[in-house]
Amino acid sequence: MSTIKQMFEYYGVRFTASRERDRDRGEVSATTIVMAAALVALAISVGAVISSRVRDKANSLNLG
């Protein structure tokens, strides 16, 4: 887990630095795009997992 934590810290620092630098230029950097794509992918995967678990639980209910 420490490698993942270091990776998130690195990208957090890069995202912050990129955001501050972009305020001056008004441009979107590659780091910002990568972070946005990663957050979208994370949200989609979390949604898929939750949907799958709810569907499995619903299918396991004995209604008869």
Automatic annotation (TrEMBL):
Keywords: Membrane, Transmembrane, Transmembrane helix. The chain crosses the membrane at residues 28-50. This is Unannotated protein. The lineage of its organism: unclassified sequences, metagenomes, ecological metagenomes.
